Amino acid sequence: MMWMKAQVDEVRTVDDALVKVKVMLFYEIKDIELMLQQTKDPIADMANALTADVIAFASQLTYEDFLEQTGKLNDLESYPQLCSRSKSIGYEVSKVVYRGYQAPTQLQRMHDDANERRTRLKLSVEQEEQEQEMTDFKLKGTLETVQLQHKLKLEQEEHKQKLALQELEHKLAMEDREHENSLQQMISERQTRFEAHKNTSNQLVTYLGQLKRLGVDLTEYLVSKNPKPDKVTRVVTASGKADVHLHNS
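Below the sequence we write its predicted structure tokens.
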């Protein structure tokens, strides 16, 4: 395998920037007879085809785009004329290596200045993005803290309300129980008094029955148990008159 270094001068980009492009070409002879028939200077033919491919590549790009896409100059797909011409003269190109570029001093300085401005701008944007992310993070943390505090406060209020409700229910239950106990006690007392009165009445009836069987006059007996009152008040209304006279005897 053979190789040669090549430099393509005055490569012009679409925005009219001139650069020099350096490459290294690796190739080998595949058909000597074909070479002898088709060319007298195969190296010059391949160099010319290489130059045409590089110029065509740059002519479609701005200077900035060209610098960003120089990696494509390592691909054989970027050299269709070189591959076609080398094959037609009995050669085969196996690889092309991009070795760099050279721009006029003023153009390079302008490019470096632009790169520096872009770098500063990019760093400034990244710094602003980081600051914004930090601000967002802090705001998110503050919001989450506020939400958590609000949630805890709501839970505390719910707990207090639950305790108050339980206390009220317990108080009402105690009052109901006390009222029921009081009612039961009152019913029991009345039942006791009723039973006592009933027993007394039954005993009196039994006693009077015994007296009757013994021949005691029950009317006289009962009258003796209820003597004549000390005072008797009578109301007498004279005929045809509405006057009321009270007589005590």
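The chain has a mean pLDDT of 84.
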